[in-house]
Design a protein that fits this description.
Layout lengths: L1 H12 L8 E10 L9 E8 L2 E9 L9 E4 L5 E5 L4 E5 L1 H17 L3 E20 L2 E17 L7 E14 L8 H5 L5 H15 L5 E10 L7 E13 L14 E2 L2 H7 L10
Parallel strand pairs: 6-12
Antiparallel strand pairs: 1-2, 1-11, 2-3, 3-4, 4-5, 5-6, 7-8, 8-9, 9-10, 10-11
Length: about 280
Amino acid sequence: MRRILRTFVIAAVAATPAWAGLEFTVVSKTEGGPGASMGDMVMNAQTEGDQARIEFTETHNPMFGSGSYMLVNAKGEMTIVNPEKRTYSRLDLAAMMEGAEAGLGAAAKMGIKMEVEDPKVEKVLEEPGGDILGYPTTHYRWHTSYTMVVRLPKPIPDRRSPSESTEDIWTTTAISMPAHAGKALEGMGGGQVMGELKKVSDLAMAKMTGFHLKSITVTPARGGRGGSTKTTMEVTKIHKADIPASTFVIPAGYTETDLMQQQQRGPAMPDLNKE
């Protein structure tokens, strides 16, 4: 989920001062691992200055149905709009992380604690990446590793799960990112559990400049069981466009709903009085 949200933000903040607006398509595909298809998406983005609209034209994720779209304003605030149901929902990442923190707190009272040990994010490659869609790129390769530790009540032994991933990223400085991008990225670290890992990652990747045109992330299966998960995200189309101001406005007559409550509610029970 964190990687998908990061993709939305990358799409939302792409803009260049020399152009009035941009339209582009982002394709995400995941191969291998359980539930891999949940990461498959096609998103069409429109940006104008610090505003953006990202439509999910193809997705298997129940939180973002096909045809729905996300609006991002100049403050980095995100809203999910569902034209089929004529509803909209605020996507508050900070509140989501607070909910995760509350769950961890309850587990801690029962003697269960989760920690990240030895987080490392290392740049292992930086080289010219050739042209993508006519833009010169730089190719970076990053290696991330850490150990997730679940501490259980004694005498139950702690459970340790080493994890690592390799990420290849192609960026271009021909498309710049506005200042509010950092604000939009706040709260994506996964709360207490992933906080330290995010600090290390942010510190390292702050040295990588430019807009992401393509990335390939490979994560081996944990525990040495073989296999791996590969996630590819790529901008496949991009062009200059004049975007109407109404594109970034919630349509009149739409009702605000709670996105997380909808997900927790699950599918409705069938009406047994109907044939």
